[in-house]
C-alpha cells in the first residue's frame, strides 16, 4: 500500500503493533542539492509513531549521514528503541567538497559578498512581487542560485546579467546601480588574472572543471604558499561511508516467547549469507562495501586480500541502468535494500518505509516477496516510486 502524504499523518492511522519491520532512508538534514525536504532531520514524533506501530521485537534500519548520525541515534533511543551496532555502507565514489585554502587566499579580497542589507533588500522585493523564486530562476536562467543570493551559505552577488533581469521584473530602484558597476569591474579584473594564470586557456577559477587544474594549482601570494595543501569545510575529507541505524523495539522475554506471539525478534542471518569474490560463503557483517573500492589498491595484493576475506559484503552503487529515469539524488541500490529487508523481515512479513523516496525499498520488498507500506510526501517522487514498484511486480509476474 502506497501513500502520497505526510508520513506522520499516515503513521497515526496505522494500528499499534502492526508492522514487522521498518527499513528507510530518511532525510539526512544536510540540505543536499538545496532540496527543501532535506533541510532538517525527521522530528522525534515520527520515530515515536514508528515505535508504536512496530511489533515488539521488530527491527528498524535507517540510513543517515556520517556527520549527523548521532542525532538520529539519540532520537531513536528517546523514542524507545534499543540500539544495535550500526551497519556501514562504504564506497569509493564520494566527492570531497572542501575549499582549497591556497586558492581562497589568492582570490582578490576586493570582491565582496552579500551582506544582510542586500539580502533584506532583495528578499523584500521578491515578497512584494508576484513572482516565486522558482519562476525567477527560470527568468534569469539560473538553477539554485537564489539560495546564494539570499542565504549565508556560500553567498554571492548576482551577475550583472541576472541583476538587470531582476531590476526589470521586480521593478527595483537605483539603490545598487553604482555598486554593481564597480562589482563588475572587479570581477573582470579577477577573471583576467585567472585567465593569465591558466596560460590563456579561458577557463576561469569560477568554472573549474578539470581536477588536474585544481590539483596542480600553484599558490601565488605569501599566505597561499604558507597554506598550500590545506582545505577547509565540513567535507574536506572525502566522504565514503553512510551509517545505517540498527535498532529494535524491545521484545518480550524470553525472545522465543516474543517470536511465538509476534513473529519477529530475530535476524535472518542464514538468508543473508552470500558467496564472496573469493568463492567463500560469508555471513552478512556490519560493513558492506561497493566493489569499486578495491580499485584504490590495484597493485597491492596484501591490501586487496583484506577485501577478499569473510568480513565484508560487496554491493555496488546504483548502476546506470538502475538510475535511468530516476532523478532522486540519494538513490540506493536495490541489491542493498533487498539484503536489508531480508535481514529484518520474516517471510511474507510487512515492511514499512515512511520516507519512500523513489521506492527502492518497495522494489526490494516485492522482489523478496515481502508485503510493503510506503509513504512519500513529495508528489514527483511518489509517482516515480509507484511506477518502479508496479514495474517490478510486472517483472515478477512475467
Concise description?
This protein is of the alpha/beta class. The chain is 39% helix and 14% strand.
First and last CA, distance: 21 Å
Taken as a percent bin, the fraction of beta residues is 5-15%
- The number of distinct helices, counting runs of at least 4 residues, comes to 17
Number of strands: 14
Q: Rg to the nearest angstrom?
A: 25 Å
Protein model, in words:
It is elongated, with a radius of gyration of 25 Å. Strands 1, 2, 3, 4, 5, 8, 11, 12, 13 and 14 form a 10-stranded mixed beta sheet that branches. It has helices at 7-11, 44-53, 69-79, 101-106, 116-127, 133-140, 146-150, 160-169, 177-197, 211-215, 222-226, 255-262, 301-306, 320-323, 334-344, 360-367, 379-397, and strands spanning 2-3, 19-24, 54-63, 82-83, 87-90, 99-100, 231-232, 241-248, 274-275, 281-282, 287-289, 313-314, 350-353, 371-375. α2 links the parallel β2 and β3 (54-63). It has 398 residues and is an alpha/beta fold. Helix content is 39%, strand content 14%. The longest helix has 21 residues, at 177-197.
SSE layout and pairing:
Elements: E1 2-3, H1 7-11, E2 19-24, H2 44-53, E3 54-63, H3 69-79, E4 82-83, E5 87-90, E6 99-100, H4 101-106, H5 116-127, H6 133-140, H7 146-150, H8 160-169, H9 177-197, H10 211-215, H11 222-226, E7 231-232, E8 241-248, H12 255-262, E9 274-275, E10 281-282, E11 287-289, H13 301-306, E12 313-314, H14 320-323, H15 334-344, E13 350-353, H16 360-367, E14 371-375, H17 379-397
Helix pairs in contact: 2-3, 15-16, 16-17
